[in-house]
Every structure is written in C-alpha cells, then in structure tokens.
Structure prediction request, 460 residues.
Amino acid sequence: MFGKFDFGILWTNGSFLWNGMLLTLQLTVLAIGGGLLLGVILAVARLSPLRPLSWLVEGYVNFLRSMPLILVIFWFYTLVPKLIARPVSGFYSVLIAFIMFEAAYYSEIIRAGISSVRRGQISAALALGLTKMQAMRYVVLPQAVRNMIPVLLTQSIVMLQDTSLVYVVGLRDFLTSADIIATRDNRPTELYLFVALVFLVACFAASRLVNQLRRRYAL
Amino acid sequence: MGNYNWNWPIIFKEPYFGWIVSGFGKTLLIAVFAWTIAFPLGSAIGVARTTQNYALRLSGTVYVDIFRNIPLLVQMFLWYFVVPELLPADWGRWIKRDMPYPQFLTAVLCLGLYTASRVAEQVRSGIEAIPRGQRNAALAMGLTPLQMYRYVLVPVAYRTIIPPLTSDFLGVFKNSSLALTIGVLELTSQARQIEEYTFAAFEAFTVATVLYCLVTGLVILIMRIVEASTRIAGAITVGAQ
Prediction:
C-alpha cells in the first residue's frame, strides 16, 4: 500500500521540519506561561468581591469562548500592528492571540478549582483563628491546585495541538513547514501522515502521564 | 487605532453582504451536519466503552485516543489530501473528480468524526456516573443488556450531560471555521475575503464575531431551558464544561 510513497523525504528535509517543530514548541511554552499568568489574574478578578470587576472578567471570558480560535488569530494578527502603529513580526501577534485566548480557558479552570473547595473548609480555617490570607494559603490553595493541575495540563495539550492553527497566517510552525514541503514536492501523504504521527505519539504520551498524575494526586 | 478609517456601510453593500450571509449559512450547515454524525456515532462509542465486552471497550478507547490526540487541522488535511491517495485507485479518483461539494463534505465528515470522540467521552462519563444499582435493577427485572442501555442507562446519561454536550456542539460550531483551510467559504473565510477586497478588516471581523456570539448565546439559552425541563429530581450534573 505504501509502495509508491517515499518516506526518505522526511530525512532529507529534517532540519527544515525540526525548525518548524522548534517554533511550535516555543509558541506553546510561551503561550502556556503567558496564558497561566493572565489566567490567574483573571480568576482572582473573577472571584473578587468587587462586582463590576467580576462581571467584566466574566464578559471577557464568555466573549472569547464563543469565538473560533482562527478568528481570534485573524483579529490579533491585524489588530496588533495597527495598535502599536508599526509592523510587528507575525509571531508576536499570534502569541498575544494565544495568550488572550488561553487565559480565558485557564481562568475558568482555576476559578472552578478554587470554587471546588467546600465552604466548610474556609469556615473551619477561620474558626481555628487563621486569617483570610492564611486560610487561602494553607487550606484552600493546596487543595485547589491539586484539583486543577490535571485539567490545566490537559488544556495545555489541547493548546499544543491548537498552535497548528497558525497555519492560517503562514507562520512556519511544524505543520506549516511540512505543508510547504508537501506542496513543493507534491508529497502530501508522507508529510501529513508524519505530522499526525508525531502529534499522536506526543499528545497520547502526555495525556497518559496526566491521567497517572490525576490518579495519584486526586483528593 | 486613531487613524483607522471606519467604513461600516461597505459591509451592507453587495457583494459583501451576500458573502457574509452565505458564509454564515455554510457555517451553520457544517455544524448541523457534522453534529448529526457526531451525536449518534459518539453515543455508540461512549456506550461501547462502558460494556463488559473487551473488544468493544478497546475499539472505543482507540478511537477516542486517535481522534483526540491529532490536531483537528491535521485531521482535516488527512481527510482531504491523504485519504483519497490511500483508498483503492477508483475510489480516490471518484472523490477527487466526481464527488459533489468535495471540500464541504470532507469538512463535515472530518468535524463529525472528531466531535464524535468528544461526545463519546461525555456519554461514557454520564453512564459511569449512574449508580451501579440501576444497572443491577434493570438486569434483575429481566431486561437484556441492549434494553438496559436503551431504556435505563442512556436516557438518564443524556439528561445529566446536557451542559457538556452543549459545549461540544458549540465546539463543532466554532471548529467549522477550520473548513476554510481546505477552501470552504464559511463565515470566517468570508470575513477574511472582505478584508482582502476592501481593507475593512475590523468591520468584517466584527460582523463575524457578533454572529458567532449571537449563535453561541442563543444555543446556551435554549439548552438551559431544555436542561431545566429535563432535569432529574435529586440528580447532579456531571462532566466538565
């Protein structure tokens, strides 16, 4: 069945594909870092007793979650250079798009994690004489973090897969690099199958690890 | 942004207005068709993963693992560019030359099979959340395993997983935008095309954004009513949003 195919093409274009993979990893790591940071800030704002602030964040989260990621990428790809009034590398525009988008999802996970700690725990902590900050630091957060980490990791695996969408603005990530070779040499089968296999192995292994982690640390 | 020349009227002029309308229609059609594949198939796979039969459980698990661990865009390319090459030559030729609406149908198939893996996970967790007693009671009453699923487990599971199923439907609705990569002129790609023809980028993107948000809001509203009217007294809902 694969007689007419030439998988040697992967080898001869190895460094080009590897550079694509590096861009994918770079984008993923930076977007996870930025998304988590912004996500924590959003989650705290969402849980704050200041009603307007909480509503504002809720609006932001719901707004971004009802948009397709591709449209978000197009928005920021066009918006960022106009906002700062000078040309900017597509990588940064796309990175900002991913951070803004992922933060909306991360913040919901973090909020759910904190809300999952039962109220009785906080009451008990306060009754024991802990201050509000201490209750948060020693009672709520340790439990919340254990609940939310597997979900955050799963979301990050989804995010790794989602970075392939930078294809729509022509950024040379792993998939786009493979696509360039596939089109140039008319070898779509070899290249796309290879990309699929690499993602499948990486994401499958990662999600199994997350499952083990969940089993081990679940409360 | 101060020097951006807003040009709202252009969106409502032909041909641009027509582009938006037809793009919006295609987006809705892709989502609905893909869901009609995803919902029954996903339910079947979800059920398969909860049965006693090892082969059924394994094939369900393999399906879900494969479809969830390959980026959707890569899957789109596989269905569109690779599958016709791997099929017997006659079939491949038919797909490439004679199949009507090749891009549209490929997108529907790809999104349907991908979303089925998500639906399967929701159905499985819905069934697993049902107390074992229900299963035992159904069998003790003389129901066959098939009847047990049909009349006891699946109906209860559906009613508890309405919120996660809703977000999966909204997922397929948003993911329909990936069809633009194989040349389907759905809403996002029409917005992009208007940008290229008129430079009215923000107007076009805004219209698309508003339409996506409207549908999402509407679906959430309707499903909240459905959920409230089918809620099982005393039961809590399961699954992540």
